[in-house]
Amino acid sequence: MKRTTMGAVVGSVVAGAVATRFLSARQRKWPMSTRAQDRRRPRWHVVTINRPPDEVAPGGRLPEPIAKLGDEVEVQVNRAVGDRGTALAARLRREPSGITGAASRLAGSDPLQAVRAALRESKMLLETGEILQADKPGTAKHTITGRPLDLAISRARGEGRL
Amino acid sequence: MKALCWEGVNELGVEEVPDPQILNNQDMIIKVRLSSVCGSDLHLLDGYIPAMRAGDVIGHEFLGEVVETGPEVRRHHVGDRVVVCSVIACGRCWFCEQGLYSCCDNGNTNPGIPEMMWGQSPAGIFGYSHAMGGFKGSHAQYVRVPYADRVAFTVPEGVDDVDALFASDAAPTGWMGADLGEVKAGDVVAVWGAGGVGQMAAQAAQVLGASRVIVIDRFDYRLDMAAHHLGVDTLNYEETDIDGELRERTDGRGPDVCIEAVGMEAHSPHTVAYRWEQVKQQTRVMETDRPHALRQAIMSCRKGGMVYVLGVFAGWIDDFPMGALMNKGLTMRSAQQHGERYIPMLLERMSRGEFKTAYLMTHPMPLSEGARGYDLFKHKRDGCVRAVFSPNGDGRFTTR
Ligand SMILES: NC(=O)c1ccc[n+]([C@@H]2O[C@H](COP(=O)([O-])OP(=O)(O)OC[C@H]3O[C@@H](n4cnc5c(N)ncnc54)[C@H](O)[C@@H]3O)[C@@H](O)[C@H]2O)c1
Ligand SMILES: [Zn+2]
Ligand SMILES: [Zn+2]
């Protein structure tokens, strides 16, 4: 089962769902990330979606790309700061760290990459109705000196500062 | 299909590459009729834009015919003649709604790369590196256009191909400089750079009511072209002291609006300083971009004036005159072009004969001569302002 939080309110229920009481920025608790529990809380990753909350999570149902992450993440859906639509936030329950963290990042199996990509893809789906695909087939030649860039490109939806 | 590809620093080649495909329901495929060089490509060619891979198709200023539409394309149909904005924007995110199309949240498929470079990711751009989405460029027989209803615009009947071509990039970029530079009736506007972008900015400033427009460069053929077609004042910075001239021409005040249309590879007439600047740029640590024209614009601008930066910069610059900016109360703005905001209006003006663009094309060519076209353009040889390729033709076309 998946536990989802609504600001201060702990909402609950089936996997891939949140409570339908969407809080305004004023009603929410700041800062979002605290160290209260284990001294190293994984940070929330947030996108603002230019749609109202009841479209982002109709009846509490989460957008497909985020719902797919299941129990790995906690999710919040609230009104965005400045009334700019909806804040969709997610964080890993457990973040990989140290050497395993770095290795999984290189291997492209870092769960954080999946969180960023899911947030970005949820936003695209809701705002534009589709997930924009990178141009394929590629025309680039894969060279040894080009390897770091190839790697950066293959992770580019999952990396970044989001 | 055939395409002109970036093969490495200062290396271009025409290659056989796979045809593009519809990958999203809102995509369409264009058969490219005309595709122009742009000063931005020189930054790629010279190796100052990171995230290029050998084999990447370049080119982003283009016009063509629709040959295939995805199931959710509504505004365009097979056979339509369209001009495509160089900037790929969704038209529906908050930024697009504000008219800040080049800041679109959904147009870049590689947001992680620019986020690491700049904090946030701008929109995608055709043929302009993997930092801008890695989309294939338009110097090719066919190109995939994502968000087709938002990014492509039907060309009105009476507008010639070559005129409409520059509604893709040079014209809206120049218009943005004058518009967001807040040019008002009576203003004196100075424009650094007499390339396609600078000339379009100068023309836009005139349309918006500037009382005097002064274009600055060192190539007389470009200055003469601007004077001839637009009737602007011109200054050759190798022959005169720009700051002194600008003071005289503004009765001692300095220009109200200064538009920088040069970018990260600015030339400087002060040989020693210029060489030192090039050395710093090569280190990629002291600075990545040479901002000579930008510095001069800031120093010359009147108190409380506006500096609008159209020239492309990629990283950081040295010796930035922050004191002048602060103490003179200047406003500085910049952007990749918000083309979708201006293209319909520009096409409308073109159809009424109120905005001139076709004269920028100095070298019509077949795609097979792509490398030569860039060579002429880069070295400003043979009177080149814009070389324009016809990837599906023999390059024998003219303006009207
Ligand atoms: N913001 C955008 O969206 C956008 C769009 C298109 C182009 N651009 C940028 O605009 C710039 C100009 O593009 P272009 O196509 O006109 O290029 P261009 O190469 O045709 O023209 C640049 C001109 O600047 C002149 N120049 C160089 N140093 C100068 C100096 N110190 N003072 C005055 N002039 C100087 C050159 O002689 C040249 O004529 C480039 O940086 C390009 O990347 C930006
Ligand atoms: Zn351009
Ligand atoms: Zn957008």
From TrEMBL, chain A:
Name of the protein in its database record: Uncharacterized protein
Gene3D superfamilies per record: 3.30.530.20
From TrEMBL, chain B:
Gene3D superfamilies per UniProt: Medium-chain alcohol dehydrogenases, catalytic domain (3.90.180.10), NAD(P)-binding Rossmann-like Domain (3.40.50.720)
Residue ranges of domain Alcohol dehydrogenase-like N-terminal in the record: 26-149
UniProt KW Transmembrane helix keyword: no
Pfam families: ADH_N, ADH_zinc_N
UniProt KW keywords: Metal-binding, Zinc
The species this protein was found in: Planosporangium thailandense
Cofactor requirements of the protein: Zn(2+)
Protein name as it appears in the record: Glutathione-dependent formaldehyde dehydrogenase
Family matches, as PANTHER family: DEHYDROGENASE, ZINC-CONTAINING, PUTATIVE (AFU_ORTHOLOGUE AFUA_2G02810)-RELATED (PTHR42813:SF2), ZINC-TYPE ALCOHOL DEHYDROGENASE-LIKE (PTHR42813)
